[in-house]
Amino acid sequence: MIMTPDRDYFLIHEARYKRILREIGGIREIGGQKLKILDVGCYPYHLGAALEKMGHEVWGISSPHEPIKNKKVAILNIETDPFPYKDNTFDLVLFSEVIEHLICSPLPALTEMYRVAKKGGHMLITTPNRNGSINLGKKLVGYTPSYPTDINPYHRHNREFTLRELKTLVKTAGWTVTRATHFISYHPFRRRNRMDNPLLWTGKFANFLAMSAIPHFRDTLLVIGEK
């Protein structure tokens, strides 16, 4: 099988995608209908494509450094540009694995999401856990859980959050937090394009056991807000 960067990314994030789709299924059941969804930071267009196949109406926002050619995807900088949508437009705003890449405060973007969401609409956000086991392990051996500074600043993690911090941000932007939890996105049993060597796999399995036993060690945060 020929591997492409798109497929590589899909396999890495497949477990996260599945969790998000399950959570959206619960939100849909609340409204009893298909949803009008805005996917903020929708590159690559994996979740958008899946949601469209599920019958939802999907719009997206992508950035100038990761543009998507799709008439329903706007290209803009969410840190500085207003969203090109009217107030009270979307049933759900999706913001997955984006907030950690922002350079400035995420509050303007979160506030714009609140504006374009319908009354009773939701926002779903996921982001890496600042206090996950991998980051804690790096600290224990003398490293900081940071990313290189010699790459495009939007291609690195500029700020990761704890669950408490993320909930505070969401509330400050006006949302009512209805769900906040840790979950595991990157487990050793996920499909891969190449196998880990036995020593590395054993280390990942040990970390998986730790994350399974201690929720605060899990690698990903999930917060759902309601307007």
Q: Radius of gyration over alpha carbons?
A: 18 Å
The largest β sheet comes out as: 7 strands, mixed
Amount of helix: 25-40%
Tally of distinct domains: 1
**The CATH C-level class name:** Alpha Beta
CATH topology: Rossmann fold
Structural classification = alpha/beta
CATH architecture: 3-Layer(aba) Sandwich
Q: For the terminal residues, how far apart are their CA atoms? A: 45 Å
The name of the CATH superfamily reads: Vaccinia Virus protein VP39
Strand order of the largest sheet: 3-2-1-4-5-7-6
How is this structure best summarized?
The mean pLDDT is 91. This protein has a single domain, classed as Rossmann fold (3-Layer(aba) Sandwich), CATH 3.40.50. It has 227 residues and is α/β, with parallel strands linked by helices.
List keywords for this structure.
single chain; about 230 residues; alpha/beta; Rossmann fold; seven-stranded mixed β-sheet; 6 helices; 7 strands; about 35% helix; globular
